[in-house]
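Example for tutorial group B:
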């Protein structure tokens, strides 16, 4: 029997990158998946068809989760589509680069609404479902090493991830009596489409790798492996923690 056979999973922001890798990993181990992205376009349709080859139920629900009601609706529609929800992966996130004095209210709101508010209200909707059904659950938030270390010119992003750290810790205490576990995954430099421009810049890559003791970027599949562990029964006594997956970047960076 596969590890996640019969389990139902919602992964926000799962049309590419780390989210897509998580979806592939969990589906390959038997999970039914609700994918999410802003638009149900041709690429989304092709992704669903490709993932259906893994032999599980695959749905795609298009929602821009930066609006609280949208993420609440997404959770409820995922529950309806799959007949229940065992695991929620809050993966969707955005970043905006600017000097602190040039950050606009619009960019600040977009980052905070997507990276923090959506997690807050999506997890709330999931917790209400679990309470109503008198069942436990699992929540995994995609954080970042920047919940812990600085990222100049990304002040709003760092604030959102720092907030996510404390939200997770607080909810671990509140949700544990309901048998709901919650943890953060904090990737470092991962080879995803969002980093494509930087990866093409030899000077920037050289500077980056000098800060990573393992001297390479991580892969989305490696992050997905950690998510799969935290979602599994092997992690049944783990809640309230952040798991860094960064090739040693975080604490090496702090020593610079």
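The residue assignment follows.
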């Amino acid at each position: 029997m596969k590890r996640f056979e019969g389990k139902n999973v919602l992964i926000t922001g799962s049309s590419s990158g780390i989210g897509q890798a998580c979806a592939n990993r969990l589906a390959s181990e038997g999970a039914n998946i609700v994918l999410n992205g802003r638009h149900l376009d041709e690429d989304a349709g092709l992704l669903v068809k490709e993932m259906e080859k893994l032999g599980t139920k695959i749905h795609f629900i298009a929602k821009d989760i930066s609006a609280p009601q949208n993420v609440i609706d997404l959770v409820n529609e995922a529950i309806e589509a799959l007949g229940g929800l065992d695991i929620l992966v809050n993966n969707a996130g955005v970043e905006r680069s600017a000097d602190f004095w040039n950050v606009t209210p619009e960019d600040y709101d977009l980052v905070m609404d997507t990276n923090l508010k959506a997690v807050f209200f999506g997890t709330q909707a999931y917790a209400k479902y679990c309470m109503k059904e008198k069942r436990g659950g699992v929540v995994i938030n995609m954080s970042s090493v920047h919940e812990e270390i600085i990222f100049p010119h990304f002040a709003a992003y760092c604030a959102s991830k720092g907030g996510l750290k404390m939200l997770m810790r607080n909810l671990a205490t509140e949700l544990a009596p309901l048998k709901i576990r919650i943890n953060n995954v904090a990737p470092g430099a991962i080879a995803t489409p969002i980093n494509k421009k930087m990866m093409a810049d030899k000077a920037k890559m050289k500077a980056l790798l000098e800060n990573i003791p393992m001297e390479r970027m991580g892969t989305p599949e490696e992050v997905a492996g950690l998510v799969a562990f935290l979602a599994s029964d092997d992690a049944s006594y783990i809640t309230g923690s952040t798991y860094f997956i960064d090739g040693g970047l975080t604490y090496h960076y702090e020593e610079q």
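The chain is about 45% helix and 15% strand. Compare this with the pattern of hydrophobic and polar residues in the output above.
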